[in-house]
C-alpha cells in the first residue's frame, strides 16, 4: 500500500498580507509561508491509514526552502519518504500548473492513494486534487472527512461533506485521488526537538519540474477588500466595550 | 447574431433546488440582462417532475434525466456535463462553490480545456469579456480575474446573489433529454446521504449563539465562553478549525459544511470571518464581533465590532450581564 501526500506552502493569512507593486501578486519577501491547512489534514489522514494498513507514506512538498521544514515535520510525524518539488513563488498558487508538474512525477510511482487538501488558502482556480486526478486518469472525491479501505485494498469507502452537516457515503476504486477536508482526528503534534532531530537526518529526494507545464489563470488585480465597511466599532478597553455591548443588548431587550 | 449563453448547473435535494442554485440564477440573470445573453438552468436528475412547474429565473430549463443521477454523485455529473456543455457551447458556466461544485471543477476544467475561477463573489460582462471577482486567503484578499474569451467556469460563493431573484412569475420553457453518456460502472458509487446527528443540541434552534473561532487559542478558554453563553440564555457554537481540533462536537459547527443559523444574537469571538463560515451565520439579526485584527473580514458583516482581547473581555462581559440582571 503506497500513499502520497502533497504538502503546499501558502501565505499565512494570520500575518499581514502585502500586495506587490505590480498589484497582481503578494510581495514575496513580506509573505510568511505555512503548510496549507488542508494538506496538514491530508497528512494526518495518511498517517492514520499507515497505522491501519502498514502503508508506506511519501510526503511530496511543493515550494521553496520552507517546504523542507514541512518535510522535516512530516518525517518527525512518521512519513517514510520525503520528496521536494521546487516551484518558484510566482507559480505556487497555480494549481493547473502544479497538477501538470506533479502528474508525470507521481504516475510512475504507482501510488494507491494520493491525498491533498481539498482547498488551499491561495486558491483561485479548480483546485489541485481534481486536476491531479485527471492527469493521472484516477477517480476522485473531494471534501473527504474519513477514509476506510476494504481488505483487498482495491476499493475505499469515504465520507464526503455536504452542506447542512450531511455526509455522503461513497465507494471509490483505487488507485484514487482524495481531496481531504479534515482528518478523522486533529493533526498530531510533534515536539520541536523531534522536528529538529528529523531535520538533521532528513533525506530529501529533489524532483525536477517536467518540461511540459501548463499555465493557469492569474489575477489581473489583487486588492484588499474594504474592511469595517459595515461594523460600528466600539472604542475603549475591555471594560468599556463590555459596558457598550450590555447597553446594545439592553436596547433590544436581550439583557 | 445568436446571443451568448450562460449555463447554471443546478443543485437540488429531495426534489427542491437549493438556495445556492437560486443565487446562481439571480447572478446569471443580472449578468445576462446587462449584455443581452441567455440563461439556461441545467438540472441533472432521475426525476424531472418536481422541477417541471418551477418558475425559475431562466430563459430555459434543460433537464438531463437518468437513473444514475438520483444522487449528488460528482462522478456521475462529471461524466454527463462535458457532453451537454460541449453541445450548448456557452460563454459562461456557473457552478456553486459547494461540495459538488468543487469536485466538478477539476474534471470540467481538464476535459473542456476551460479556466475555472473559484471563490467567486461577483461576475459581470463587458461586451464579450467576462470579469470575475474572487475572494482568497480566508477573505483577506480580493482578486479580479479576466479569464479570456473562451468558455469560462466560475464557482459562485453561496450567499453571493439575491436568492429571491432566482424565481420569477412564469415557468420557463422546459426540455428533458436523456443522458448523453452511460452511468453504469462509475469508479465512484454514491451509497447514501446521512443526515447530521444532533449529538447534544441543535444550534439552529438557539436564539443566542456565542461563536468560538481560532482566536480563543485553547480548549481551556471554552469554559468562559460557556459561562457567557449561559448568561445570555444561549449556547456556544464554533468555526471549522475549532471543531477540527476536537474542542467541540461537529454538531456545533456553523458554516458551509456545518449548520446555517439565524439567531437573534451572534457574538463572534476570535472569528476571522472566512467566507466558509460567514455563509452560515450572516443572516443573524444582530452580529457583534470581537477580533484583535482590525482588518478581519468578520467586520464587513458585523453590526458592531471591537478589537479588544476577547479573553479579557469575556469574563468582564459575563459579570456585567449578571449585574444588569440584578443577580450579582
Kindly provide the radius of gyration of chain A, computed on alpha-carbon positions and rounded to a whole number of angstroms. Answer: 21 Å
- The N- to C-terminal Cα distance of chain B equals 76 Å
Mean pLDDT of chain A: 93
Percent of residues in helices of chain B comes to 25-40%
Tally of helical segments of chain B: 8
Fraction in beta strands of chain B = 25-35%
Biggest chain-to-chain interface with counts: A-B, 89 and 97 residues
Strand proportion of chain A, as a percent range, falls in: 25-35%
Radius of gyration of chain B: 22 Å
The percent range for helix content of chain A is 25-40%
β-strand number of chain B: 17
Average pLDDT for all residues of chain B: 94
Uncertain residue segments of chain B:
none
Order of helices and strands of chain A: EEHEHEHEHEEEEHEEEH
Name the structural class of chain A.
alpha/beta
Keywords:
A: 255 residues, alpha/beta, 10-stranded mixed beta sheet, 12 strands, globular, B: alpha/beta, 8 helices, elongated
Write a structural description.
The complex is a heterodimer of chains A (255) and B (328). With 255 residues, chain A is an alpha/beta fold. In chain A, 29% of the residues lie in helices and 27% in strands. Chain A is built from six helices and twelve strands. Chain A has helices spanning 37-53, 66-77, 95-106, 128-135, 192-201, 238-251, and strands spanning 2-11, 33-35, 56-63, 81-86, 113-117, 140-149, 155-161, 167-173, 176-180, 204-206, 221-223, 232-233. In chain A, strands 1, 2, 3, 4, 5, 6, 7, 8, 9 and 10 form a ten-stranded mixed beta sheet that branches. In chain A, strand 6 (140-149) and strand 7 form a beta hairpin. The model of chain A has no long low-confidence stretch (mean pLDDT 93). Chain B is α/β, with parallel strands linked by helices. Chain B has helices at 19-35, 74-88, 99-112, 222-231, 240-244, 275-278, 298-301, 310-324; strands at 5-9, 12-13, 16-17, 38-45, 60-65, 92-96, 116-126, 129-136, 141-145, 152-156, 174-178, 188-194, 208-212, 235-238, 265-269, 286-290, 304-306. Chain B has a nine-stranded mixed beta sheet. A five-stranded parallel beta sheet of chain B has the order 14-13-15-16-17. In chain B, strand 8 (129-136) and strand 9 (141-145) form a beta hairpin. In chain B, helix 2 crosses helix 3 (99-112) and helix 4 (222-231) runs parallel beside helix 8. The longest helix of chain B has 17 residues, at 19-35. The interface between A and B is large, with 89 and 97 residues.
Amino acid at each position: 500500500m503506497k500513499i502520497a501526500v502533497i504538502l503546499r506552502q501558502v501565505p499565512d493569512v494570520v500575518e499581514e498580507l502585502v500586495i506587490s507593486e505590480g498589484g497582481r501578486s503578494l510581495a514575496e519577501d513580506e509573505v510568511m509561508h505555512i503548510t496549507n491547512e488542508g494538506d496538514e489534514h491530508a497528512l494526518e489522514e495518511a498517517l492514520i491509514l499507515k497505522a491501519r494498513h502498514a502503508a508506506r507514506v511519501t510526503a511530496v512538498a511543493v515550494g521553496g526552502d520552507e517546504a523542507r521544514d514541512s518535510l522535516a515535520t512530516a518525517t518527525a510525524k512518521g512519513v517514510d519518504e520525503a520528496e521536494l518539488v521546487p516551484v518558484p513563488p510566482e507559480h505556487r498558487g497555480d494549481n493547473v500548473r502544479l497538477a501538470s508538474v506533479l502528474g508525470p512525477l507521481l504516475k510512475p510511482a504507482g501510488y494507491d492513494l494520493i491525498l491533498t487538501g481539498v482547498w488551499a488558502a491561495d486558491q483561485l482556480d479548480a483546485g489541485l486534487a481534481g486536476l491531479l486526478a485527471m492527469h493521472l486518469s484516477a477517480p476522485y472525491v473531494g471534501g473527504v472527512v474519513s477514509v476506510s479501505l476494504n481488505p483487498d485494498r482495491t476499493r475505499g469507502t469515504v465520507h464526503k461533506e455536504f452542506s447542512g452537516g450531511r455526509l455522503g457515503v461513497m465507494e471509490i476504486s483505487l488507485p484514487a485521488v482524495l481531496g481531504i477536508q479534515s482528518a478523522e482526528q486533529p493533526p498530531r503534534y510533534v515536539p520541536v526537538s523531534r522536528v529538529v532531530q528529523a531535520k538533521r537526518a532528513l533525506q530529501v529526494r529533489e524532483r525536477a519540474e517536467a518540461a511540459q507545464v501548463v499555465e493557469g489563470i492569474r489575477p489581473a488585480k489583487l486588492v484588499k477588500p474594504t474592511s469595517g465597511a459595515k461594523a460600528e466599532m466600539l472604542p475603549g478597553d475591555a471594560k468599556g466595550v463590555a459596558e457598550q455591548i450590555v447597553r446594545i443588548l439592553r436596547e433590544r431587550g436581550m439583557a | 447574431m445568436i446571443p451568448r449563453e450562460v449555463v447554471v448547473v443546478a443543485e437540488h435535494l429531495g426534489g427542491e433546488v437549493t438556495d445556492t442554485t437560486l443565487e446562481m440564477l439571480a447572478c446569471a440573470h443580472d449578468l445576462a440582462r446587462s449584455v443581452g445573453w441567455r440563461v439556461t438552468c441545467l438540472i441533472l436528475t432521475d426525476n424531472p417532475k418536481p422541477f417541471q412547474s418551477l418558475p425559475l429565473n431562466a430563459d430555459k430549463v434543460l433537464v438531463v434525466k437518468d437513473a444514475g443521477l438520483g444522487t449528488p454523485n460528482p462522478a456521475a455529473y462529471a461524466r454527463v456535463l462535458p457532453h451537454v456543455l460541449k453541445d450548448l457551447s456557452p460563454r459562461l458556466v456557473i457552478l456553486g462553490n459547494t461540495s459538488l461544485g468543487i469536485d466538478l471543477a477539476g474534471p470540467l476544467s481538464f476535459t473542456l480545456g476551460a479556466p475555472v475561477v473559484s471563490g467567486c463573489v461577483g461576475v459581470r460582462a463587458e461586451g464579450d469579456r467576462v470579469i470575475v471577482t474572487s475572494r482568497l486567503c480566508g477573505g483577506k484578499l480580493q482578486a479580479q480575474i479576466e479569464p479570456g474569451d473562451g468558455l469560462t467556469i466560475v464557482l459562485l460563493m453561496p450567499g453571493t446573489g439575491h436568492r429571491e431573484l432566482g424565481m420569477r412569475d412564469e415557468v420557463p420553457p422546459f426540455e428533458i433529454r436523456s443522458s448523453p453518456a452511460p452511468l453504469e460502472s462509475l469508479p465512484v458509487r454514491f451509497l447514501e446521504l446521512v443526515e447530521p446527528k444532533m449529538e447534544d443540541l441543535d444550534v439552529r434552534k438557539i436564539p443566542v449563539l456565542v461563536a468560538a473561532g481560532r482566536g480563543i487559542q485553547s480548549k481551556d478558554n471554552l469554559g468562559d465562553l460557556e459561562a457567557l453563553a449561559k448568561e445570555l440564555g444561549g449556547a456556544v457554537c464554533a468555526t471549522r478549525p475549532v471543531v477540527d481540533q476536537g474542542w467541540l462536537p461537529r454538531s456545533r459547527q456553523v458554516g458551509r459544511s456545518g449548520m446555517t443559523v439565524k439567531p437573534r444574537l451572534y457574538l463572534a469571538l476570535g472569528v476571522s470571518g472566512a467566507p466558509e463560515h460567514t455563509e452560515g451565520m450572516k443572516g443573524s439579526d444582530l452580529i457583534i464581533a470581537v477580533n484583535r485584527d482590525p482588518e478581519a473580514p468578520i467586520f464587513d458583516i458585523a453590526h458592531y465590532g471591537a478589537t479588544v482581547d476577547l479573553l479579557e473581555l469575556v469574563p468582564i462581559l459575563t459579570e456585567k450581564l449578571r449585574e444588569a440582571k440584578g443577580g450579582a
